[in-house]
Amino acid sequence: MTLEEPRRGFERSEFESRLARAQQLMAGQSLDALLLMSEPQVRYFTGFLTQFWQSPTRPWFVWVPATGKPIAIIPEIGATLMRRTWLDDIRTWPAPRPADDGLSLLTELLGPIQDRKGSVGILKGHETQLRMPLADFERLQASLPAIDFTDATALLRKLTLVKSEAEIAKIAHICTIASKTFSQSAGVFHTGQPLTEVFRDFRIACLQNGADEVPYLVGGAGPGGYADIISPPSSHPLAAGDILVLDTGSVFDGYFCDFDRNFAITSADDASRRAYATLYEATEAGLAAARPGNTCRGLYQAMRSVIAKQDSSAGEVGRYGHGLGMQLTEWPSNAAFDDTVLEAGMVITLEPSMNYANGRIMVHEENIVIRDGAPQLLSSRAAQELPVI
Amino acid sequence: MTLEEPRRGFERSEFESRLARAQQLMAGQSLDALLLMSEPQVRYFTGFLTQFWQSPTRPWFVWVPATGKPIAIIPEIGATLMRRTWLDDIRTWPAPRPADDGLSLLTELLGPIQDRKGSVGILKGHETQLRMPLADFERLQASLPAIDFTDATALLRKLTLVKSEAEIAKIAHICTIASKTFSQSAGVFHTGQPLTEVFRDFRIACLQNGADEVPYLVGGAGPGGYADIISPPSSHPLAAGDILVLDTGSVFDGYFCDFDRNFAITSADDASRRAYATLYEATEAGLAAARPGNTCRGLYQAMRSVIAKQDSSAGEVGRYGHGLGMQLTEWPSNAAFDDTVLEAGMVITLEPSMNYANGRIMVHEENIVIRDGAPQLLSSRAAQELPVI
Q1: This prediction's pTM
Q2: Which of A384, B224, B302, B315 has the greatest number of CB atoms lying within 10 Å of its CB?
């Protein structure tokens, strides 16, 4: 590993700033508290970073009051780790305890809000999930009928849309690691290598180059193109004339990159070359349009206008990129439905895709930060012509 | 990679059998359908395996009717992969489409059940989450007020409790890979090595030994013991006298192992040796008690009675093991609250833990299959005495 790592974790001031902005937005909506339970939100307010979320057994809660510091309501197994964060008030129970998995602790916090018929923000909107048993949430609601559990999705989006420079440094670092790994592809991939081995060797190279983990690696390969981009690897051996795509969401200190690269094995067919050139041009159009004040719809249209010359279908991916950070994909979407205004400090992907030939698709992807003026590329720009390896 | 891999995927008969058993249980509860949306359930009924679930943006649904084959209601981006499964009826929409992310397709399926005031099973219970926006679920309920959305958690538990031999073969394979990797530890770990590197090297070795991915790797190290077992690695360099624990949930073909190993670096202190011996003995007691007809509570008590001789606290982990399969942790729990009866074909972990000395904990873990008679160890049994490396 040769790349210098950014500092892990964050200064305390980062969390203080997140909290202050949250409480300002909460005041604007007269919210008495936020009740958050998914990994990115718990981590955003506490810094609590663990792979233990892989276990679906235990719910975890963070309570953000209108004033004062957040409170963690968590399983006892997480107390030691949570005590290393900036939080003071950590309340635990011996989870799992199905009869009362945190509910009595939550009820204690919610009691005063029930008395004043207050509002508590939870996440109910697009791209969110309820990370506690629905039956437990229904019990909580039923026992506190005076509380308005209102949707705070828009508030959380506003809060996390623009990344801090410390966050951007982590995303930039993992993008550099993935770029370096892709740049070594010619030495890693070879004809006859089954896709299972291609994927395995790429994962190992990412780790060797400094990634903490590689939670997302999808792709495909086939003669003259690939048909989908979310598959696990088949045993298909790479063959001359294949187009190979790998798309990775690797992670450093809890922050993702998310981009792909396309390769032609030994030689490239004309249709794939043309598709590649079109997507390269679409990305250039996206980069030119990625300015503060433009919208995600505007970004979509800039890329779409290039692609429409070759492919009149809407594409299977549903959008041409998205937000990026603590999650592989975050709000907003580069799509016709999304009129989010671009702001300096937003980290997004540009991900134009197209159908071509018979049932083949191609996807390009780059990761960028919106800056005043031209955007900053976090991924090393893909080659201008389809690379042959 | 030297280990021979079991066949990837499943025979069609596996899915037919799952469906038949589900529909039998559904009939017993007069359920008109199941509406499932989380990764393990979608995969259980379809075989749909992808890391695309890392993206929280799009909801995915599988509909299991009272008779006939399951129906997939999924984003268009997944159609190509879903068409390779045994399903015939695949309905898609161009997700993301926040205004209607699958709801109109669901409403079409639910319409006839609304007309007859029927019941649809969803997962609302312990260890489940609603993997669609809560606001969308509330809209769906409000638009179909005659439907009883009832909790099918118990049904799904019963269905997935006993694993097929094909499933067991996958879990056994990943356990063998992790066991092999742990057995190489003496050659991988050394004093002065920062924990970040210990974790990275272990991950790489797991992949080199044949794991598809290593989504879960936690652990810790410290002089004379460690204080928690869910942390990511610190920069602490391994030092003489450290006790190191690594706990991995590695994956082969979508199935997890979940076990740990403890090591003393250069030399072991007496307290840690004694704790290790106690937990080894507790696991032996668990193995002796792991017989069809006994309960998870009985397993807990068998291990507890050994541990109580040294540690009177209840332990921070909350239980002494759990189910294992498509998820890192599954129902049931080896805990005082769980009276699940053990059956041949259940795959579980034995995970006794204890507090000792000042704030140190130790955890042991093995993975087993309940068989008629003695259980089958899937992990290679830990050394009888704390290994010094």
Answers
A1: 0.97
A2: B302
The phi and psi torsions of B8 (rounded to 5 degrees) equal: -80, 150
Q: A12-160 adopts what CATH topology? A: Creatine Amidinohydrolase; Chain A, domain 1 (3.40.350)
For testing contact with chain B, the best of A80, A124, A348 (most B CBs within 10 A): A80
Contacts of A95 in chain B (CB under 8 A): 318
Number of residues assigned to chain B: 389
- With CB atoms and an 8 Å threshold, state whether A316 touches B77: yes
Tally Cβ neighbours within 10 Å of residue A74. 26
Nearest to B56 among A96, A127, A208 (CB): A127
Measure the CA–CA gap between B17 and A55, rounded to whole angstroms. 27
Region A115-127: mean pLDDT is 97
Interface touch A318/B122, C-beta < 8 Å = no
Sequence-ordered list of residues with C-beta below 8 angstroms from that of A189, at least 6 positions apart, any chain: A198, A201, A238, A244, A263, A265, A389
The reply to whether residue A218 touches residue B52, judged by beta carbons under 8 angstroms, is yes
Q: Which is nearest to A237 in space by CA: A266, A205, A217, A274?
A: A266
Whether residue A56 and residue B316 make contact (CB cut-off 8 A), yes or no, is no
Q: Under CATH, what is the fold of the domain B162-377?
A: Creatine Amidinohydrolase (3.90.230)
Please give chain B's pLDDT, 389 residues, in tens: 457 899 999 999 999 999 999 999 999 999 999 999 999 999 999 999 999 999 999 999 999 999 999 999 999 999 999 999 999 999 999 999 999 999 999 999 999 999 999 999 999 999 999 999 999 999 999 999 999 999 999 999 999 999 999 999 999 999 999 999 999 998 889 999 999 999 999 999 999 999 999 999 999 999 999 998 898 999 999 999 999 999 999 999 999 999 999 999 999 999 999 999 999 999 999 999 999 999 999 999 999 999 998 887 765 567 999 999 999 999 999 999 999 999 999 999 999 999 998 889 999 999 999 999 999 999 999 999 999 99
| Chain A environment of B335 (Cβ under 8 Å) | 96
Which residues in chain B have their CB less than 8 angstroms from residue A216's CB?
A: 51, 54
Chain A neighbors of B157, CB-CB under 8 A: none
Domain boundaries, chain B: 12-160, 162-377
Asked if A57 and B127 come within 8 Å (Cβ–Cβ), the reply is yes
Residues B155 and B68 sit within 8 Å (Cβ to Cβ): no
Are B215 and A213 inside 8 Å of each other by CB?
yes
* Contact state of A318 with B212 under an 8 Å Cβ cutoff: no
Contacts of B319 in chain A (CB under 8 A): 96
ipTM over 0.90: yes
Asked if the domains A12-160 and A162-377 are classified in one and the same CATH topology, the answer is no
What whole-number distance in Å separates Cα of residue A284 and Cα of residue A305? 12
Beta-carbon separation of B98 and A337 below 8 A? yes
Q: Give which of B338, B336, B285, B291 is closest to B309, Cα–Cα.
A: B285
Phi and psi, residue B347, nearest 5°: -105, 125
Contact A200 B207 (CB under 8 A): yes
Best residue of A37, A126, A202 to probe chain B, by most B CBs closer than 10 Å:
A126
The token pair at B258 is: 């979940």
Q: What is the Cα–Cα distance from A322 to A331, expressed in whole angstroms?
A: 6
What digits encode the pLDDT tens for the residues B218-248? 999 999 999 988 989 999 999 999 999 999 9
Q: Which residues of B touch A58 (CB under 8 A)?
A: 318
Q: How far apart, in whole angstroms, are the C-alpha atoms of residue A18 and residue A20?
A: 6
Kindly list the residues from chain A whose CB atom is less than 8 angstroms away from the CB atom of residue B123.
134
Contact A212, A5 (CB under 8 A): no
